[in-house]
Amino acid sequence: MEIRKATSNDKEIVLKILDEFSDFANSLESDWDGQLSTYSRDHSGDMFDKILASGSSVIFIAVDNNEAIGFLELHKVPRLRKANYYGEIEGMFVREEYRGQGAAKLLMEQALEYAKQENLNCIRLYSGHELKRAHSFYEKMGFIHAGRTYKIAKYD
Q1: What topology is assigned to 2-140 in CATH?
Q2: Is residue 54 a contact partner of residue 38, using CB atoms and an 8 Å limit?
Q3: How far is CA 104 from CA 3, 16, 56, in A?
Q4: Which of 13, 103, 109, 145 shows a CA-CA span of 20 to 30 A to 139?
Q5: Domain definitions of the chain by residue range
Q6: Residue 67 — pLDDT band, cuts 50, 70, 90?
Q7: DSSP state of 55
Q8: What Å distances lie between residue 97 and 115, 121, 149, CA to CA?
């Protein structure tokens, strides 16, 4: 298993695992119809290119036999009030058959090293309430529960 930064050559394998992440998240919903997602592969290619070109975001991938088995997407976020940047993990996922084998830990260690190199003030992430195993992992990696998150999806 190898952990590395994604490059433009990795677009297809990254978009595929993002769809698997969506399938996992959707499967937690009681009304999921079982339809497998192709949304990232169909719509996220340009965003992938923009993220790589931005210089303020990184995607780490865990690769085994030329196939992505996990990913972590990290963005540098500016904080004007504090005159610094923090990191935000937008997504992290390891395929079920690879869980418990160290891939998540290696991905997170890469993110922490990146944060150190980039002098990020902290790293934040958001996690669904029902993901108890993930919460335990984050705490083992040194994260602490730090409040509530709110969102709005309709603007009218």
Answers
A1: Aminopeptidase (3.40.630)
A2: no
A3: 10, 18, 22
A4: 13
A5: 2-140
A6: confident
A7: S
A8: 28, 34, 30
Reduced DSSP (H G I as helix, E B as strand, rest coil) percent helix, strand, coil of the chain, to 5: 40, 25, 35
pLDDT in tens, 12-47: 999 999 999 998 888 888 888 888 889 999 999 999
| Look-up of token digits 């290119």 | 49
Instruction: Please name every residue paired with 115 in a beta bridge, in sequence order, or none if there are none.
Output: none
CB atoms within 10 A of CB 145: 9
Q: What is the pTM of this model?
A: 0.90
Helix or strand (DSSP H, E) at 125:
strand 123-125
CA 37 to chain centre: 17
What is the Cβ-side half-sphere exposure of residue 36, based on CA atoms within 13 angstroms?
A: 6
The position carrying tokens 């677009």 is 11
Length of the chain: 156
